[in-house]
Amino acid sequence: MQTLEEAELCFPHLLNSSCRKAMRPHSVSMFIYITLSSISLLTVTLNMLVIISISHFKKLHSPTNILLQSLAVSDCMVGFIISFQIMYIDGCWYLGDLMCALYLVSGYVVSSTSIGIMVLISVDRYIAICYPLYYPRKVTVEIAKICVSICWIFVFLCHSLLLRNNLHKPGRYNSCSGECVVVVDNIGEIFDLLFSFIGPVTVIIVLYLRVFVVAVSQARSMRSHVTAVTLQGSVKVTAKKSEMKAAMILGVVVVVFLLCTCPYFCITGVVQDAGVSASSVTFLLFSCNSTLNPLIYALFYPWFKKSVKLILTLQILKPGSCDTNIM
Q1: Is 30 part of any domain?
Q2: In the predicted model, what is the mean pLDDT of the chain?
Q3: Helix (H, G, I), strand (E, B) or coil at 79
Q4: What residues pair up with 20 in beta bridges, in sequence order?
Q5: Degrees to nearest 5, angle at CA 221 with 216 and 226
Q6: Are 282 and 268 in contact (CB under 8 A)?
Q7: What are phi and psi of 78, to 5 degrees?
Q8: By C-alpha distance, which of 119, 35, 28, 31 is closest to 291?
């Protein structure tokens, strides 16, 4: 029969080397488990709908939507990563050192890629609003796919190099059996903070401030000339309005992203002695961002509502459904 001390261990048979479980009231553990499970399921489901929508319907194959699709892929992966966090609720990792290393490295890669995609979205809107004549000729679906691929590859290579010691010998930094930690040296931490947070966030803010200024200027210009436009001019005005609406929606996505990620990076990256509860709350907020993005699309994009309806009713299985005009 297990003693009380053995019951508190991750691996009771490793009495001298096992980590201790995080002892919480059962109600608290169940609340955390249900919350994380719900967020994980909702995040994966909603982002899969975004991925399927943009992949299936040809009318949605635009440079901006390619970036949104890539963001949905990274958000979907966040949902899967949350499921591993659920297994680690009691502070015990049972999946082995290799899986621990892959889980932590994946978290670094996915979170940094999300930020990289946000930078690309900001650049996309900056060019579309500030250089509207240049945008259709130079910013194509193929260019968007190349930029997304470069972003994923660059982030993967950087973090593989940054965390090479953890990958080379998984578990080397564990202080006891059942622990799952990753260790980065001081130079690596500074590099990660600069290139995964401070640098990209600065670029995003600067570009969107510029977009906001230009969008306001264009809106005033359109209002002042609205009574003296030809049919051709009306088409141009409509196009500009469409681009500015897209900028506004993606601006909401960026603002929500910054509100969700800034506390996480500030607590875990800047405040080194942050408590467990503070880190858990900021991680939860960071994870919720991946759930909120598809909800924002559902709120502002009519095409997303239509595509979800067609997906859920299995209309996409019909021949020629990919040519449906849902814009």
Answers
A1: no
A2: 78
A3: helix
A4: 9
A5: 125
A6: yes
A7: -60, -40
A8: 35
pLDDT in tens, 159-188: 888 888 777 788 777 788 888 887 777 787
Range of the domain at 287: 35-219+231-319
For residue 217, how far is the Cα from the chain centroid? 31
pLDDT band at 3 (very low <50, low <70, confident <90, very high): low
Nearest to 208 by CA among 135, 241, 242, 257: 257
User: 253, 291 in Cβ contact below 8 A?
Assistant: no
How many domains does the structure of the chain reveal?
Answer: 1
DSSP state letter for 317: G
- For residue 219, what pLDDT is reported? 62
Chain centre distance of CA 87: 21
- Identify whether 276 is part of a domain: yes
Query: Whole-angstrom distance between the N-terminal and C-terminal Cα of the chain?
Result: 65
Q: Rounded distance, CA 302 to CA 309, Å?
A: 11
CB under 8 Å to 264, separation ≥6 — which residues? Answer: 282, 283, 285, 286
Closest CA to 54 of 156, 144, 154, 127: 144
Token duo for residue 107: 């978290």
CATH classification at residue 252: 1.20.1070.10
16, part of any domain: no
Residues 139, 140, 144, 146, CA torsion sign: negative
DSSP string, 248-268: HHHHHHHHHHHHHHHHHHIII
Look at residue 11 and tell me if it is in a domain.
no
On the CB side of 5, CA atoms within 13 Å amount to 5
Nearest to 177 by CA among 276, 98, 93: 93
Residue 242 in tokens: 């469409």
**Dihedral, CA atoms, 28, 38, 283, 191, nearest 10 degrees?**
150
Q: What is the pTM of this model?
A: 0.82
